[in-house]
Amino acid sequence: MAQARKIVVLPGDGIGPEIIAEGQKILEAVNERHDLGLSTRTCVFGGAAYDETGKPLPGETLAACRDADAILLGAIGGPQYDEAPRELRPERGLLGLRSELGLFANLRPALLYPELADASSLKPELVAGLDLMILRELTGGIYFGQPRGIEERDGERVGFNTMVYRESEIRRIAVRAFEIARQRNSRLCSVDKANVLEVSELWREIMIDVGKSYPDVELSHMYVDNAAMQLVRAPKQFDVMVTGNLFGDVLSDAAAMLTGSIGMLPSASLDESGKGLYEPIHGSAPDIAGQGVANPLATILSVSMMLRYTLREDAAADAIDAAVSSVLAAGCRCRDIATGHAGEHVIDTQEMGDAVLAALQAGEKA
Ligand code: IPM
Ligand code: MG
Fold it and tell me: Cα(303)–Cα(312) distance, rounded to whole angstroms?
């Protein structure tokens, strides 16, 4: 057996613990069946960590994450933390983790399962076969730029942030984007606001420069407002989109809805070496937390991405993806992806996890 590889699990807040339980079920199953030699350790993070230790990212959790090969995260945040000091809110814990671990490349694939074409907010013919990848820069831009703050100026309060990108930051995300495009359909659309922002002007210039080393990849550019419109008008025109932190946050939520539900979308956040944090892109959904109705598929698919991108266990990842496809084909739906069609069974979080597990076991026997 290979040397034990360490996975840190961060259930977090809201529906986090519920969906993570299902993700872990699947992770444990493939670990055993594929003899992956993974060891897992659960740590407190986000609001749960703030409640327990007074900090959203306790030192012990950060140290465990640094030491891990990969991290599986549920979700963080909730309205009960709105009044906490800004520096101690759960979101700051997540941003701190991304930045401390240098997880600059955020892959957010939006893939429409044929069975879910009717669950999309767009007409089925516009989304059938949709398979796009958003690559979001995750440790720079306006999320981290200095100066930032709220202060008193001329007798009134002023809030400010700084949108800043260093050439090296643009270059490294550009390289990732071209590499990913090359593994797909070799079309890359860089999204910016170069008609207004200097930071985008530089972004575009560097994208073009890096593109010279990838003549086989077709590079295009789009302003972010147009990109938002094109995503809901004709999303299949895109193969890979690369963009900065804030634009990527917004566009990836829009892209998620095209696939039927944000409850379906996994993500990977990778550092230079390929080590990564894997999480569903939806939030902690406090409104449905504790009801057992959250869709665990985005988390289960995040486990699959972890196996593929960091652990390089493609066979195990393929097995999970196939199991998810087969439960959808069999009509299993959590509430968020149910359309009321005949042949659908609406099931809860745990039943969905069990259905994927059963499909995994059946698939591997065949
Ligand atoms: C996301 C989330 C986070 C972000 C929040 C929770 C800080 O919306 O991962 O997209 O804005 O990056
Ligand atoms: Mg977001």
Answer: 12
For residues 106 and 135, give the distance between their C-alpha atoms in angstroms, rounded to a whole number. Answer: 6
- The neighbourhood of ligand 2, an ion, using CB within 5 A, equals 249
* Cβ–Cβ < 8 Å for 206, 236: no
User: Does 175 lie in the same domain as 66?
Assistant: no
pLDDT band at 3 (very low <50, low <70, confident <90, very high): low
- Residue 91 C-alpha to ligand 1 middle, in angstroms? 7
- For residues 360 and 272, state if they share a domain: yes
The sign one gets for the Cα dihedral 300, 306, 307, 309 is: positive
pLDDT, tens digit, for every residue of 158-172?
Answer: 999 999 999 999 999
Q: Which SS3 state, helix, strand or coil, does residue 212 take?
A: coil
Catalytic residue among 67, 225, 287, 314: 225
Note whether residue 116 is domain-resident: no
CB 253 within 8 A of CB 281: yes
pTM value is 0.94
Domain membership of residue 216 (yes or no) is yes
- What CA dihedral angle connects 314, 316, 322 and 323, to 10 degrees? -160
Structural domain range at position 271: 1-107+264-366
What is the CB neighbour count within 10 angstroms for residue 366? 5
Give pLDDT tens digits for 174-184: 999 999 999 99
